[in-house]
Amino acid sequence: MLARTTRNVLLKQSRQTFSFRGCLQAKKATLSRGARTATTLSAPSPATGDDVDIIADFDIPYLTQPSSGLARTGMFGHEFLTTPMAFVELADSTLCRAQLLTHRIHKSKDSREELFKVVKHLDRLSDLLCGVIDLAELVRNAHPDPEWTQSAEHVYEKMCEFMNVLNTDVDLYHVLRAVLSDPEVFKSLGPEARETALIFWRDFEKSGINLPPDKRNKYVSLSSEILHLGRQFLNETASSRPPAVIKPHELTGLKDKAMGTRLRLQAQFTQRDLVVYPGSLQAQMIMHSAPEEEPRRKVYMAANSSTSGQIGILEDLLHARGELARLVGKPSFAHMTLADKMAKSPENVAHFLNALLDHTRPHARRALRTLSLRKQEHLHTSPFPTIQAWDRDYYCPPEPPAPPVSLPPLTLGTVFMGLSRLFRNLYGITLRLTKVTPGEVWHPDVRKLEVVDEKSGVIGWIYADLFARQGKPSGAAHYTVRCSRRTDDDDAHHDLDDAWDEGALRAIQLSDKFENAHRAKIPGSEGVFQLPVVVLLCEFTRP
Questions:
Q1: For the whole model, what pTM was predicted?
Q2: Directed axis angle between helix 84-106 and helix 170-181, to 10°?
Q3: Quick check: 128 and 492 in contact, CB under 8 A?
Q4: C-alpha span between 119 and 108 (Å, rounded)
Q5: Distance (Å, rounded) from C-alpha 254 to C-alpha 285?
Q6: Is residue 112 within 8 Å of 78, Cβ to Cβ?
Q7: Which domains does the chain carry?
Q8: Which tens digit of pLDDT belongs to each residue from 401-433?
Q9: CA atoms of 490 and 468, how far apart (whole Å)
Q10: How many Å apart are CA 296 and CA 133, to the nearest integer?
Q11: 169 vs 160: CA distance, rounded Å
Q12: How many whole angstroms separate alpha carbon 344 and alpha carbon 339?
């Protein structure tokens, strides 16, 4: 019900229509009939100060993050968010705040005026909860301090469990149904608000809102169990794996003349088996350089094998997902998950994958044939030996062919500078490096970029955590820590009309501080907006 995808919808309808800048500039550049027809490429514009700062900061390794020199603050500039326990206190405060807002929505059926505000309040409730959940999701994956990650794990599960309870809240469902069934109220909603209301409605239906109470409770418990098992499974996949044990004679003929020679001499001198951990430099070298198939097979199997515990967690997760799907009347978890997605059904996904396979199969077969010929020539086997998974790196070309035109090195700094220039030409938006306050970020590698509109100034922030480090998840990820939405029409002070006592008011103070951060009036736009905050996580090698 309270999906993050709905939180950006409630924007003012009268905003100015966006015009693609490139089209406008193209009209001005139209040549007259007598003009020459030869195409002339203009020289690239010189680097601005912001361009130089971005290139220097991303391409030159710093031991510490540039600091603004101001007094210490907390995570993302929240002055109170300085310890793991403060994170838990924020979650508790947010839950109190959410309960007050939920109570207000429950009573909306008794007030016609309040009924017109229900969709806005549901959107606020979604943003209130997801603001903490999204932050917890980032911290538990990116923070190097185990105390912070454990705190974030606790907060994430606690907040998601409450959200699952709301997803099966019959009173909220009845209020929303009253809004959708009232012609006057529904007609008063703008297109974005109507779509938001329908998204909430579909999410209620998907969560088994019409089930008996005992089955709704089962839905909540299964959803929480799936979250826990999913996290446990991911933690297990990131844990270290048993090493491969390589015999000294299996290292004969290593093509690598540096590390390979050292390892071979070490094995010959000690006459001991070589212990190679998956993902290590030694493992990568063996996969590319060992002419013997057996050491490559051992390294590959070590990297891609699972323990019985990991398999058990996966089986428990799949069982819980299947039980949840059957609880809401779906044949599988895939059917349940895809119903409101673009693909719509597992059959459509399978059709797409099969079509993709049919398209790529001829190219893959040609590539495998080439590798098979190389293996045949190397091992002097019968024609077209089978290419195993551990053969690929060894028999593939050592490096891609050089481009026909010499190109400058593509670095992180030049990529970010290029993106900034592209955004400026398309949208009038640039990226500008800015300093952080001590305590604002979770690791010295993290860089902060302002997103600057040429007319409106700063309209959001990007935190870039781009370099690999021990304990950091592999791959790339994008986290929306704070969404953009209009806030001056929230009518939030009336949420407190039924506050129980002074203790309840004190309990929500942290939540109010958290909610009121990152708000600003944007020049040229009516109202006050919550500015977005996003985080990019990658694992590039530090330059």
A1: 0.81
A2: 50
A3: no
A4: 11
A5: 9
A6: no
A7: 51-211+412-540 (1.20.1050.40), 242-293 (no CATH)
A8: 667 777 777 889 999 999 999 999 999 999 999
A9: 41
A10: 42
A11: 14
A12: 5
